[in-house]
Amino acid sequence: MKLSRERIDEFEENGFLILPELFSTDEVAVIRDAMARVFDRDEPANIREKKSKLVRTATGLHLRDEAFSRLVRHPRLIEPAKQLRGEDLYVQQCKINVKAAFEGEQWQWHQDFSTHNQEDGVLEPLALNLHIFLDDVNEFNGPLYFFKGSHKFGPLRNWHDTVSTSWDLWVIEEVDVRRVAETCPLQSMTGKAGTALIFGDLMLHGSPPNISPWNRSIFSMIANPVTNAYKKEARPDHQHHRDLSPIQPLADDCLLERIS
Ligand SMILES: O=C(O)CCC(=O)C(=O)O
């Protein structure tokens, strides 16, 4: 799948792209079945919420289930990502972020690049975060909030928050969030299950707790150019994979082909 010139310009201008219902209901069902299998296991790569102990983030998915191994090579994700970066990419991270109804906790304001740079020694903000909504995401069940165009500010001042949630995160100083808010409008990332979202490493974003009665699960894969690979191994492999093999896209129907 190729992006048009207009969509590439939109990505450069806003810092993100929404691709409504890029994946079909049947494909989302395959991913959700795999999610249930992975979440059932009590493994360190399933990181639980501080309070409820429900799974918040399940990482290393493409090494834990064949459906995810195919999904990280899906042409509808990988071809646009390669087109935007113009070079080979590796799977830096492959996870699902859940926000369970009533219980899902926040993601503080952050740029992904702060973590990639501080923890993994990635030098340039070139990684792309590729999301697929696995539930309908609405205004109430904890959508991501983006400061549209915030990538143009470059890397912002950050600090390491190891207290607020069970996922340690490099978060952005409030003074910088206020500065960005002066010119960049906030937009919530909502859409039907199967919708995809592509955003860059410098997007200033966060998301509120889910106090609604509706679950919210989002698949998230970070794809980074091979030439921009990690230089530090502070985090475990399931949070930043060491395998730098260039991602080779599979056939478009790869998710629906039988898994033997
Ligand atoms: O799942 C969320 O609400 C936030 C996820 C996020 O911030 C990210 O993927 O970088």
Automatic annotation (TrEMBL):
Keywords, in A-Z order: Dioxygenase, Oxidoreductase
Highest taxon of source: Bacteria
Cofactor(s) needed for function: Fe(2+)
UniProt xrefs under Pfam families: PhyH
UniProt-listed Gene3D superfamilies: q2cbj1_9rhob like domain
Keyword Oxidoreductase: yes
Signal peptide, first to last residue: none
Matching PANTHER family: ECTOINE DIOXYGENASE, PHYTANOYL-COA DIOXYGENASE DOMAIN CONTAINING 1
Protein name, entry field: Phytanoyl-CoA dioxygenase family protein
